[in-house]
Amino acid sequence: LLLNVIDPKIGGVMIMGDRGTGKSTTVRSLVDLLPEIKVVAGDPYNSDPIDPEFMGVEVRERVEKGEQVPVIATKINMVDLPLGATEDRVCGTIDIEKALTEGVKAFEPGLLAKANRGILYVDEVNLLDDHLVDVLLDSAASGWNTVEREGISISHPARFILIGSGNPEEGELRPQLLDRFGMHAQVGTVRDADLRVKIVEERA
Hints:
InterPro entries: AAA+_ATPase (IPR003593), CHLI-like (IPR045006), Mg_chelatse_chII-like_cat_dom (IPR000523), P-loop_NTPase (IPR027417). This protein is α/β, with parallel strands linked by helices.
C-alpha cells in the first residue's frame, strides 16, 4: 500500500484473504498516514492549482486566462465503490436534454471524479461486474475518464490509486483482471490463539 502511495504508477494493489483478516481496516487506515494536498476550492475533480495534468477542463481554462483560483488544503480522499454501483454512478452522467436544449455540456461527475488525486477502494472486487472492473482499470492506467452519450463526449482527470480486496471463498477474480493490478498481496488467517487475543485487545 505504501509503495503505491509513493509511486501510483505501480498500478494499484489487490489484497485477497479470508473474511476478518483486517483487509478493509488496513486499507482505510492508510489515509491517516498521508499528508494534506492543495486543491481548487469547490472543484469536483480535486484539481491541482498548479499541475495542468491534474486539472479539470474548467480549472485549466481559468488558469490559462490568468485567473486566481481559490485554493484549500484537504485530506486525500478515499472513495469507497459499493458493489451495486452502476456505470453512471462510477463514471458520471451527461444530461442529454440540457445539452440539446441549452447547448451546454451538463455533466454530473461520478465516483471517478471524486477519486481524482486520491484512493479508490473496492471491497469484494471479485464480486464486482467484470465490465466495471475493466472501466476502473482503464481509468487507473490512463489517468482519464471519458463519458460518451449520444455523440457528446466529456473527459476529466481520474488519477487515483486503485485498491481492491476480496475473499477468494466468495468468488475468484479473473486472471486477466488480476494481471492488470500492479501488485497482489495474500493475507492469511492468524491461527495462534494468543496472537488472536492480542490483536483483539489492540483493536479494542
